Amino acid sequence: MPTIRDVSQLAKVSQATVSRVLNGTAPVSRSKREAVLAAIERLAYQPNTFARSLATNRSHAIGALVSELSSAAYGDIVRGIESVIEERGMHLVVSSGHARSDVELSSFEFLKERRTDALILQIDATDDDDLVEWVRKSDLPVMIVGRLIHAIEERCVYLDNVTGGAIATRHLLERGHRRIAHIAGLKRLADARDRLTGYRRALAEADVAYDESLVAEGGFIEDGGYRAMEELLERGAGFTAVFASNDQSAAGALKALRQAGLRVPDDVSLVGFDDLFIAHYLHPALTTVRQPFAEMGQAAARLALMSLGIDEEKEVTRRFEPVLMERDSVAAR
User: Fold this and answer.
1) What's the burial of 89, exposed, middle or buried (CB within 10 Å: 0-12/13-18/19+)?
2) Which end of the chain is more exposed for a tag (fewer CB within 10 A), N or C?
3) Are residues 87 and 193 in the same domain?
4) pLDDT in tens, 68-119
């Protein structure tokens, strides 16, 4: 069975360097880390993880708590986190909060009890004040993804959702639309409120009056978008374009429009938000606002590693900018 000495000899580094790579106790140059990892793989070296955990008081695992494991967006966040920490020989422990504050708290405690070294949270149901209290009382570093809480802003990685909502709406305005409906997310969610704010801001900039009858709450799921579109059509308010609060609700809205005999984009133009993989495969392909979920997960992971002293302190992007992805679901009016 290969030993740490065998790894050090093959990698041509000291045993202390191998230990630092395995334990994450101090920074190691990229070339040496790659040499050690290559030697470990070649020798099929298996460190005694339990003994190493006792010796260092670390589990060499990061905990991630997301709203729903089934969501493609949250899956991208998890993959982003994992892509960073696996380079440090660490593992990811994942739990779901199912958008319920009691489950989120239970999952948060579960991850702490599993002796994870740091926690990365992407949760919606727990309010800001409670989340701040969790962070401040935790003896582990805690980072927040997809949400800006000013009291702990240095721990947050987030998207500028106000600008994103404005970008989506401006695109429709620039194509000549003036009756623009909005399928909003749940009002209790800050990102949904911010996207609505961006929608209203873009309308105001174009001197287009805000019309409450053109806004329906659909949440961030397909069925919600479908029902919100049905509601908008039943109101008979008249619109030529729709900004949906995310791609999933846009997919539901697209189905409702088709069932009503309306064509996208010939009769109604449609813009989503997030740029999930489904945006490429809808017909027509969905114009949407990109949210870089994987990059946000990577940023949160880097902040966690820096807080543990595993990575050197460096500038990490916390505030991400949305980008319009033009496809086929918008036509000029």
Assistant:
1) middle
2) N
3) no
4) 877 778 889 999 999 999 888 888 999 999 888 999 999 999 998 888 999 9
